[in-house]
Amino acid sequence: MVLGVVGMLRLGVRRGMSVVGVSVVGLLVLATLLTVMREGKTDQLSGEVLVEYFSSGLFHRTFVMPMETGVWTNALAQREGLFGFENIRPLAILFGETYRNISNSVGLNFVLNPYVTVSAVTCFLFDYQGSFGYWIGWCVSLVLVCSLDFFLTCFAHLRGRLLTSILAAYLVANLSLVSATFTTFLLTHGTVPLALVGLIVGYFLLSAEKSSPEMPVSAEPQE
Questions:
Q1: How far apart are CA 69 and CA 64, in angstroms?
Q2: Nearest to 110 by CA among 133, 80, 140, 83
C-alpha cells in the first residue's frame, strides 16, 4: 500500500491512482490468500472460495465492522449515559477519572458469545459521539482530523525520494483512523513517530545545507 502511494506521489494523481488501485487489489488478494492458507483450505482454492472469504471476512472486518461497532458504542451510551473523559485515557488521567475500556464493554454487551477480553474497536468518530454526544462528537472529530494537517509541516525540509517514502507511510497510517481511537492512532499506528522522523531528518538536512560552502559566483567580464 505504501508503494502504491509512493507511485501516486511521484506520478501525480491521474496516473498514480492506477498504481494505488493495483496495490490495493494486490493487498486484498494477498490477505485473502493468507487467510485461506491459515485455515488449511488451499486444496479447495478457487475463485469462488476467494470471493467468499473476501466478502464474509476481510471486507466485513474492514468496511462493515467499524460502523457496526460504532452503532453499538452509541447504543451503549444511550443505555448508560455519555462516557465523558473516562473513555479517553489521557484525559481520564489528567482529570483524575477512572479510565474505562469502552471497547471491552461494548463487546461484552453486544458480541455473541464474547470472551472476557473481547474488544469491539470502532472508528474514533463514534468513540467521541459516545463520550460527548452526537453533534459535539462530530465537531471534536472534525477539529482533530483538520489538525492532522499540522503534521505535514514536519516534512517541509525533506526532498526527493526521501520525502515521498516518509510521506507515503504517513498517509497510509492515517487509514487506521477508520477503526481506531484518535490517541491510539497517533502513537501506536505510527503517525507521531513518522512525523518525528520527518522532523529530525529534515532538521539534519537543513543543517547540512546551511553548513555546506556556497559555490563562488564567477565575475562577469567587463567590456
A1: 9
A2: 80
For residues 165-188, average pLDDT: 80
With cell 468518530, the residue in question is: 125
Which residue type, as a one-letter code, is found at position 113? N
Reported as a single tens digit per residue, the pLDDT across 11-38 is: 555 665 665 566 666 666 666 666 666 6
CA gap 50, 58 in Å, rounded: 10
Q: Say which residue, 56 or 223, is predicted with more confidence.
A: 56
Nearest one of 68, 38, 102 to 179, comparing CA atoms? 68
CA neighbor of 61 nearest in space, from 218, 178, 184, 214? 178
**In sequence order, what DSSP letters do the residues of 71-83 get, joined into one string?**
HHHHHHHHHH---
Contact 159, 206 (CB under 8 A): no
* pTM exceeds 0.85: no
Among 30-39, 76-85, 107-116, 209-218, which is the least confidently predicted range?
209-218
Burial group, residue 91, by CB count within 10 angstroms (0-12, 13-18, 19+): middle
Query: To which residue does cell 556556497 refer?
Result: 214
